[in-house]
Amino acid sequence: MATARKLPSGNYRVRVYDKNTNKYKSFTAPTKREAERMANEYLDGKRTNTTALGDMTVNEAVEQYISARENILSPSTVRGYYIIKRNTITEIKDIKVKSVTEQALQEWVNKNAAHYSPKSISSQFALVVASLKQCKIVLDYESILLPRRKRKEVIIPDEKQMSQILHIVEGTSVELPVTIAVVLGLRQSEIAALKWSDYNGSTLKIHSAKVPNKDNKYIVKNTTKSEASTREIEVDGILKERLDRAEHTSEVISPMLPSSVLRKFSQLCKDNGLPHFTMHGQRHGNASLMLANGVPDKYAMKRLGQSSPNMIKDVYQHLYAEKEKEIAESMKNKFSEIYDTKYDTNQQK
Fold first, then answer.
1. Which residue has the higher pLDDT, 303 or 307?
2. φ and ψ at 315, to 5 degrees?
3. Which of 187, 200, 211, 256 has the fewest CB atoms nearer than 10 Å to its CB?
4. What's the rounded Cα separation, in Å, for the pair 154 and 13?
5. Over the stretch 181-232, which tens digit does the pLDDT of each residue have?
6. Which run of H or of E encompasses 298?
């Protein structure tokens, strides 16, 4: 029960300690009874709120967490969260958050590990933990063992394969989106959102993205992945030729859905004896070509719309791996050459 103290002014004040903020909250009123009433109503509200949060199920907690951020997060992120909620928390969804234990979380992770990749498990766990923390559930989350994530290599086309790709897409329905991916390294979502009004004959403005929302419907958002992704890139050479001669059948440069572009491109690669390249692989290929030709990292990041150097580092590792193969082959040939060279091994005594 809160107790009020009389101030020199004649008013009464109650100070209540808030454990969540580690600060005191003051309630001041002309009478002792009024000050205590205000403080007790505040404390009752905090207790009621804490009880209500604890009585929520994990499913309800995750729903609340997503809903509270739906207008802040990107549509694709929200969509991913709802997919996790719908498909992956079955084992724990009906447990009240106040009854969740480390053991229950570990058993849930173990079961999902048989069906999902380590990266997916990490995303599922992060969402559930964030939802529990929002409900003020304190557990030893770091004690939960997650499967180790495996590095997934992106198949990157070399210069010869880039040339082949630019040839096989010519005259097809995916000529423009694939050419833009190869020549400029744009993300597939950025390419899908490009309008003819974004092209002035010499540059392309990238300022939006086409992504699936929580209902798996493609929508155009008027923002890019990050502030660095909003950019303007010069267009010339083969891409300019193809853009200038293209028919404007729609306000968008590539009216096909990103998924349809990928299917068509994959089929063209298969029909022409190329590896199973993705559109994202073309983005990495563009980066590797810049790095191989001495383009500074900062310029490459700006052109690609990267806010962090992570992708550039991945490409560097790919290039180093290729270089290691060349060095190993060179050294093998050198020692074979040395062995095959006949020298007079007879020594004079």
1. 303
2. -65, -40
3. 200
4. 64
5. 999 999 999 999 999 999 999 999 999 988 888 777 888 887 766 677 889 9
6. helix 297-304
Given a contact cutoff of 8 angstroms between Cβ atoms, the answer to whether 102 and 144 are in contact is yes
Sign of CA dihedral 86, 91, 94, 96: negative
Question: Lowest-pLDDT range, 69-73, 140-144, 272-276?
Answer: 69-73
- Of 283, 150, 166, 151, the closest CA to residue 225 belongs to 283
Kindly tell me the number of DSSP H helices and DSSP E strands found in the chain. 13, 7
The answer to whether the CB of 264 falls within 8 A of the CB of 172 is: yes
Which helix (H) or strand (E) element contains residue 218? strand 218-221
In angstroms, the CA 218 to CA 193 distance is 10
Strand, coil or helix: 203: strand
H or E stretch covering 289: helix 279-292
Q: Match 């009874």 to its residue by tokens.
A: 33
Domains of the chain: 5-54 (no CATH), 58-143 (1.10.150.130), 159-311 (1.10.443.10)
Average pLDDT over residues 152-165: 87
The pLDDT assigned to 349 comes to: 43
Token pair 């097809």 in the structure block, residue: 172
Cut 0.70: pTM above it: no
Q: How many CB atoms lie within 10 A of CB 223?
A: 12
Q: How many residues does this entry show for the chain?
A: 349
Average pLDDT estimate for 339-344? 66
Q: Which two tokens stand for residue 226?
A: 């990050």
Query: Which pLDDT does position 16 carry in this prediction?
Result: 78
93 by DSSP, 3-state: which?
coil
The pLDDT value given to residue 319: 66
Q: Is the pLDDT of residue 43 over 80?
A: no
Tokens of 139: 């557990």
Q: How far is CA 328 from CA 319, 321, 325, 332, in A?
A: 14, 11, 5, 6
Distance CA 287, CA 289 (A): 5
